[in-house]
Design goal:
The chain is mostly helical. It contains 9 helices and no strands.
Length: about 200
């Protein structure tokens, strides 16, 4: 069997941790379970992460990076039509949640653990990155006259981020399937009102 490089072992541990945290929650999950899921020794986990909390925070950063990178790519692809970009972000998130509930579970669990100052800071860092990216795209759309300019871009961005978490909640309670893709995509429209031509 091929020996994994250090970064590959770390990635395997992280991916396994995300699955275990999503199944069990942060408090109930153990590093022993994560090691078993990853097919490594528990001691190896502690070579990469000092504690379960550090591993959880790294899991937050991993799942956040996945969403942030897709958010950037989608909005860049639709830079000439930001409103369609926002719709496409919802389309991506909806279809991802339909395929894999792990992100939904992680999103809501992270919020539940935000009383811990270090976890709160990791969550705040991710959310502020997402808001910054969305606010920039909203401002761009406002400058082009594509959406109304009377709303604060940062406030609109926070509403969009909150709506993503609503989709995660719907997935978690098995209610996402009551909406088709087009209905979910239209959820963006109250937040990015198109100007009259």
């Amino acid at each position: 069997m091929k020996r994994l490089k250090r970064e590959e072992r770390r990635k395997r541990i992280l991916d396994s941790a995300i699955r275990v945290f999503a199944r069990k929650n942060y408090q109930a999950a153990t590093t022993a379970e994560i090691a078993k899921e990853a097919g490594v020794s528990e001691a190896l986990i502690y070579q990469h992460f000092k504690s379960k909390k550090e591993l959880f925070i790294a899991s937050i950063e991993e799942t956040s990076s996945f969403f942030i990178e897709n958010l950037k790519q989608i909005l860049k692809r639709y830079s000439s039509d930001p409103v369609e970009g926002f719709r496409s972000v919802y389309r991506f998130y909806y279809n991802y949640l339909k395929r894999d509930p792990t992100l939904a579970k992680m999103s809501l669990m992270i919020i539940a653990e935000a009383d811990d100052p270090e976890i709160k800071e990791a969550l705040r860092t991710y959310l502020q990155k997402a808001v910054s990216i969305l606010a920039k795209a909203i401002r761009n759309a406002q400058n082009k006259g594509l959406i109304v300019s009377t709303f604060n871009p940062e406030a609109m961005a926070w509403l969009l981020v909150g709506n993503y978490n609503l989709l995660a909640l719907l997935k978690l309670i098995d209610a996402l399937d009551t909406f088709d893709e087009e209905s979910v995509i239209r959820m963006v429209e109250p937040f990015v009102t198109v100007t009259k031509k």
